[in-house]
Please model this.
Amino acid sequence: MKTRTILVTGASRGIGRALSDRLANNGHVVVGVARGRDPTFPGELVPIDFGDDGAAAGALQALTKRYSFDGVVNNVGMAKLHRLGEINLSDVEEMLRLNIHSAILTTQSVLPSFMESRWGRIVNVTSLVTTGTALRSGYAAAKAALNSLTRTWAMELAETGITVNAVAPGPTETEMFRRNTPAGSEAEARFLSTIPMRRLGKPEEIAAAIAFFLSEEASYITGQVLFADGGGSVGALQSDSLWCEPHMERARLLSAAMASRKSRERQDTSVPLRRLRVAIAKKGPPEVHDKAAVLTKSCPVWPRFCSKT
Model:
């Protein structure tokens, strides 16, 4: 395996950190970009504020003089929630700036090195919300634009040895997700109701998908958006019956069960955690599942995802 040098934005936490750890463990050189510093980071972590385009461009140029990059992962992003009629345009501008400007600046800074070597990997981290998620107008617009950039850049670079792809995570257990979606909340229940696997993703699972696109083996794949979402992009295509009230009640119960499980794990380490996790993953705690089974008898969609066996 050839050692590659990869630039990762938003590298200090969540998906970015999980990816950085994975790449470093596989022998690659990782240069991370984040707002702060972290002495435990598995490589060099450079503080860059993407709120200032000029300063960010200068800092990125300085990095390209010190490293010859082989791949870039545009992972930095932010989300603010608004309902239609209450959308704050300054928040939308901020989301577009951080999600889109950062990707363009970072990719353009490393592009000359890619072109010179006739090899490169560009991976944009987008989101399942582009398929339609309430309260995410600005965030979905920014991530949809990033999906579009992925396809455009793939077309422009198709004959250069440089591939451009995107990974669109579903709801993933990260700090950013939890800021907007507390454990046990109605928002979490609504997310889980659209995920056939009935659980949140792990940062390490998303990192694995990104790492594949960075690999030698992904050389014939470009312009693609891979949904790493527990089946959420499939569930999003279901009929309106997916949102029936019994179905939503089942999701709320499942969300509460997940929150209860985490509370038990913190309070009592003697609980057989593996057994508890398996029970919840299959059908929730017995008392929760029994109630949910009664509520969802008339739901034409949920029984496909929920079994007592």
Confidence is low (pLDDT under 50) at residues 238-243, 269-274, 285-309.
